[in-house]
Amino acid sequence: MVGAMSTTRKTKSVEKGEYAVAWALLKAARQAAKLTQRQLAAKLGRSQTFVGDVELGRRRLDILQIYEWTRACGVTLSAYAQQVEAMLDALPKNMPASVRVPKPRASRVEK
Hints:
InterPro entries: Cro/C1-type_HTH, Lambda_DNA-bd_dom_sf. By secondary structure, the chain is mainly alpha-helical. The chain has helices at 18-32, 37-44, 48-55, 63-72, 77-90.
C-alpha cells in the first residue's frame, strides 16, 4: 500500500533484553542487602520512585550512579560488572528484545 504507515517500531536501546540483566542484578544486590526500595533511595538521596523505575527498566543509570547503588548495597562495582558480563556472555546472540531474562538469585551477588 502506498502511503501506509509502517507498523515497525524502532527498539530503544533501553528496551533491549540485555538491559534486563543489569536491572535484575541491581535489584538482586538491593535485596541481598536486605534493603527496601525506600531504604536504598534514602541512602542514594533519591526517591523510591527512582529506585523502582531503575528496577523496572524505565530509567538507565550512568556508571557513577551504578557505583553509588552497588556501594550502598555493600557490593563492589567490579563484582557487579563481573556478574553482568558473565550473564550477558551466557545469553544467545541476537536475542530479541521481547525475551525475558531469568532473574538471578539474590545469593549470587558477591560482597
